[in-house]
Write a structure and sequence with these properties.
By secondary structure, the chain is an alpha+beta fold. The chain has a single domain, classed as Roll (SH3 type barrels), CATH 2.30.30. It is built from three helices and five strands; from the N terminus they run βαβββαβα. Strands 4-3-2-1-5 form a five-stranded antiparallel β-sheet. It is globular.
């Protein structure tokens, strides 16, 4: 799943950066330098007006405002909430 597809408030872990459809090769380098590295925890905090840009994102302990094109480059695994895990366990 891409970071841009996470629901607001959802948490995940960065899997890596996807170069497909990236208009500027420097974009991936910039995202890496900002800390979007495999294994880093990430959360989509808020979306801009109307669910659009910018996306307020926390990676590690740092907050960023990303454009949609930037968030589409970041592949993430979604963290399942503790209460959802408890509901899936057989009684």
């Amino acid at each position: 799943m891409r970071l841009s597809e996470l629901p607001q408030g959802a948490r995940g872990t960065v899997l890596g950066l996807n170069p497909a459809g990236v208009p500027d090769p420097q974009l991936l380098r910039r995202l890496s330098e900002l800390g979007f590295l495999p294994g880093e925890p990430v959360q989509l905090m808020r979306r801009g007006p109307g669910g659009r840009e910018p996306l307020a994102v926390q990676v590690g302990e740092t907050f960023f405002a990303l454009r949609q094109i930037e968030a589409q480059c970041v592949e993430v695994s979604v963290e399942v909430a503790a209460d959802a895990r408890a509901q899936r366990r057989p009684a």
